[in-house]
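Translate sequence into structure tokens.
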Amino acid sequence: MKPAEKPARKRVISRKTAGSTGSETVLGIIKKHKKGIDVSQLKAKTGFNDKKIRNIVHRASKQGKIKRIGRGLYVMA
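Result follows.
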């Protein structure tokens, strides 16, 4: 007699939820600050390193999502 076989387990695949990417996180914070926010404040709020924030800001400004209003100050476009 064979022992009863256990059914195969289904693998759970996690999916990213809205607002979970680095870009969406940074853009959400910039959106909340109507007068503008600088890179050092973004760094403190997100915990991301300097290079990651600068890359996100550069890409977003190139796409027209944010604009620079002063030296290092960014707001939503």
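Note: The first strand starts at residue 37 and ends at 38.
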